């Protein structure tokens, strides 16, 4: 079982511990985004020196998991997977299936990770948990979680909307010696430098990788992300209500604003009544998703959409983010005094 090395007489920083155990060269993880982070993206990120993550959605089949996990492992480099705790509460099969492919790291988030975390540990992999507030952070400090991922409300996709990345990261670093990964609003080498300089072990990047060439997202979705600004997102449950998806109510989603959110995000009660009365709205959203129509379908993206471009490969993105070293060096020189 991979274990974080014990402290010796010379203290080893948690960031170095995690790097030693998981074997990445660059402290860059692609977020485990269901629908975007497939095997090709995970493999490309790992091959480029980062740590590739596979996103396991709520309706994935055994065949899909087997196929995508095999691709994720094809780089020959360590890789990981992310799953939703509230889905695993009903059925642990998706987790058992992905564990058969030997991931080094598994992130169990959005709910109580208990039995799932125990299963990951039995497999020999490290267990991570995304946290979005102080209560979730306290849960992640228990012994069954090895790595804490602080996801601020700037991040895209589902999560909490309570605390931004830097305050949450600072709190986590005060509370634990476990490796802490920062997530939410990160898309450039300067952003990576900021969280690593603060003490994070790595940066968890979602939106920029969602627009990468290896992402499973449709070209229309990638182009919409590339065209968005930093103030073009909205946090809402409207898309889940319209699609009748049973995400726990505390986990809304940050997505690009579009015609649908403009019409419904401010009146969820009326939206719920409309969905209850007819299938028409749900059918229209599902059709828009099938056609990748960003005017109606959810395009889950964080505020860093305004810092992301479509058409870049995962390797190009990792190489660009890896320039964090020069950013940190320049910052250190800027504040040196004779």
TrEMBL record:
Top-level enzyme category: oxidoreductase
Name of the protein in question: Nitronate monooxygenase
Organism whose genome encodes this protein: Paeniglutamicibacter psychrophenolicus
Pfam families (alphabetical): NMO (PF03060)
Alphabetized CDD domains for the sequence: NPD_like
InterPro entries: Aldolase_TIM, NMO
EC number: 1.13.12.16
MF annotations from Gene Ontology: nitronate monooxygenase activity
SUPFAM superfamilies in alphabetical order: Inosine monophosphate dehydrogenase (IMPDH) (SSF51412)
Domain of life: Bacteria
Keywords in alphabetical order: Flavoprotein, FMN, Monooxygenase, Oxidoreductase
